[in-house]
Amino acid sequence: MTKLENLTKYLIAILTGLIVAALYAPIVMTIFFSFYKTRKGMVKWDSFSYEPYTKLIFEKQILESLLNSLYVGGITVICSVVIGFYFANYYHTSKSKMKEFLQFIIFLPFLLPPIITGLSLLIFFREINLPRSLNTVVIGHTIFVLAIVFKIILNKLETLKPSLMESAYDLGASKFQAFWYVLLPNIKLSLIIAGLLAFTISLDETLITLFLIGNDTTWPIKLWAKMRVGFSKQVNASVTLILILTTFLVLLIATIISKSEKRILH
Amino acid sequence: MNFLINYFKSSIWTFLSFTVVILLILIPLASFLSYSFFTVDGLEINHQLSLANYKEFLVGKIYINTLIRTIFLALTVMFSCIFLGYPVAYFLARYAGRFKYVILLMLIIPLFMSYIIKIYMMRSILGYAGLINKVLKMFDLIEKPLEFFLWNQNSVIITLVIILLPLIIIPTFTSLEKIPPNIIEASFDLGCKPFQAFRYVIFPIGFPGLVVGSIFVFILALGDFITPQLVGGTSGFTFGKIIYSNFGLAFNWPFGAALASILLFISVIIILLTNYLTNKLK
Q1: B122 touches chain A (CB under 8 A)
Q2: Predicted confidence (pLDDT) per residue in A155-170, tens digit
Q3: What is the tens place of the pLDDT at every residue in B217-228?
Q4: Closest Cβ–Cβ partner in B26, B113, B257 for A246
Q5: Residue A31 CB neighbour total at 10 angstroms
Q6: Measured between CB atoms, does A109 come within 8 Å of chain B?
Q7: DSSP state letters, B112-145
Q8: Do B105 and A254 touch (CB under 8 A)?
Q9: Given phi > 0 = left and psi -120 to 50 = alpha, else beta, which region is B251?
């Protein structure tokens, strides 16, 4: 290593540190303000309390929006994993030329600006007279995360040997048995990863939701509405709780990925 | 169970699942494109085809100006992300050693953390009485709080960069990581200077990942309407914001759809162009 290279190494190490700090600054501040009070722009260091967390139980609106978000996330996971698996399997096994076209369509909502996905569904629902509700939000989220779910499952399917399913059929398994006892255990982890990822994305989706939500609110929409009047301590507390949940989910996904990779290596 | 068995037996389901996707993706897109040719009549939508919306876009200078301004904004965000993100990805791939996945994970987690919260907190960081001004004042670097950061173009750019930065780091890292160390060593053995090794060996291999990340950042910055609205002040009037307001208070869905079609057109061209370029590079 030359001196110059050493110097660049340290410089970009510092830059990396600064960027990590900048990315976490807004998050750390939120957590901080859920515990401490400020007066006239100065932090009161002796005001530590976890009261906002206990008071959160009385905030009906926030809790309801949280429950709505969990509902939307849950149904989105089921829909996107089922449809995503179906298309990944189709893409993997089929020889027709339609499949490239299919992949292109699936990737469209993911690649285009979210505003376009949101308003095209909004216009479509209006034309077919479907009132906006949490379920229309589920549809929006499902087609948004479908591309990621599809890709994760497809990547896993492509690592399997074709002989796996063939031998199952040769040994007399029905199509369903081959799926249930052979294919499913092999791709189980990728389904879990895809589902967790879909849930995490759905939990925070704002741009599409804003177009498709009716009178209900999901959690990000509630925050958006609360922003004009400023956040209360309880809002900050709810944010902290959700941050813990998302961090946990991402760490879980990472652990599963690193574990399953090890299993492939050995 | 019978339901599942049938699912894998009959081809009707293949047909149905295609219909579902086409119904939920292609038909909405088509109906939104066709809306752009309609006009609005009070609170009713007039389903007669006309080019009035596009004409209005071309005639009213404000729309084209806003579009150009928004494209420049998105480009600034994209290049800022490249300049900040590339060194980070490079550091992770080459020097971070066994910590690289830990740091990568630390960079991924904020991506999934509330978008609205980040914007809200950026306001209290950048604001007149915000964190940055306070810190600068504490060290006596400034006398009066700076107004440079909030309610203008700068704050939109800074906030978008903070939100979108991980999107450029992750794909760049994954393609840089594929470079085996011995290729770099070989280039040194063959007499490359460090800069040449970077220019002719490392950069071309990492390029596809950089392009994918850049496109994501550009398209998301182009279509974002919440960030500019919430931190941009008067300059928050971006193209995405105009589209959104046509679907809200202004209630001119066809015109909003026409503006969004232009956004769609730009995005599709960029995606196809990138696709073509990356294929050519392979």
Answers
A1: yes
A2: 888 888 878 888 888 8
A3: 999 999 888 888
A4: B113
A5: 16
A6: yes
A7: GS-HHHHHHHHHHHHSTTSHHHHHHHHTTS-SS-
A8: yes
A9: left
Q: What is the pLDDT of residue A14?
A: 92
The answer to whether B223 and A116 have CB atoms below 8 angstroms apart is: yes
**Nearest Cα residue to B262 out of A106, A116, A121:** A116
- Does the beta carbon of B5 lie under 8 angstroms from any beta carbon of chain A? yes
Could B194 and A242 be called an inter-chain contact, meaning their C-beta atoms sit closer than 8 Å? no
Q: Exposed e or buried b for every residue in A183-205, given b needs 16+ CB within 10 A?
A: beeebebbbbbbbbbbbbbbbbb
Task: Give the residue from A89, A97, A82 showing the smallest Cα distance to A154.
Answer: A89
Please state, in angstroms and rounded to a whole number, the distance separating the CA atoms of residues B88 and A183: 39
Inter-chain touch A87–B194, beta carbons under 8 Å:
no
Are the beta carbons of A261 and A190 closer than 8 angstroms? no
Query: What is the pTM (predicted TM-score) of this model?
Result: 0.88
Q: With bands split at pLDDT 50, 70 and 90, how would you rate the model's confidence at A262?
A: low
pLDDT at A150: 92
Q: Strand B39-41 relative to strand A37-39: parallel, antiparallel, unpaired?
A: unpaired
The residues, ordered by sequence, that sit 6+ positions from B53 with a Cβ below 8 Å of its Cβ are: B36, B37, B39, B254, B255, B257, B258, B259
DSSP secondary structure letters along A225-253: HHTTT---HHHHHHHHHHHHHHHHHHHHH
Question: In the predicted model, what is the mean pLDDT of residues B14-34?
Answer: 83
pLDDT at B80 over 80: yes
User: Is-contact A52 A237, C-beta < 8 A?
Assistant: yes
Q: Which residues contact B119 (CB under 8 A, 6 or more apart)?
A: A227, B159, B163, B226, B227, B230, B231
Please tell me the least confidently modeled range out of A42-51, A163-172, B92-101.
A42-51
Residue showing tokens 């492939």: A264
Cβ of residue B255 closer than 8 Å to a chain A Cβ: no
CB contact under 8 A, A25 and B230: no
**Alpha helix positions (H), A94-174:** 98-111, 114-127, 134-159, 162-170
Q: Using a CB-CB distance cutoff of 8 angstroms, which residues of chain B are in contact with residue A105?
A: 21-22, 25-26
User: Is A251 in Cβ contact with B243 (below 8 Å)?
Assistant: no
Q: What are phi and psi of A96, to 5 degrees?
A: -75, 160
Per-residue pLDDT, A266: 46
Contacts of A111 in chain B (CB under 8 A): 219, 267, 271
Chain B residues lying within 8 Å of A12, measured CB to CB: 87-88, 90-91, 95
Hey, what amino acid is at B67? L
Q: Is B222 on the interface with A (CB under 8 A)?
A: yes
- Name every chain A residue with its beta carbon within 8 A of the beta carbon of B225: 115, 207
Predicted pLDDT of residue B234: 74
In degrees, to the nearest 5, what angle opens at C-alpha B44 toward C-alphas B39 and B48?
Answer: 35
What pLDDT shows up at residue B4? 54
> Hey, is the C-beta of A218 within 8 angstroms of any chain B C-beta?
no
Record: contact A123-B84, CB cut-off 8 A:
no
Buried b (16+ CB within 10 A) or exposed e, A118-131: bbbbbbbbebeeee
Say what the ipTM of the complex is.
0.85
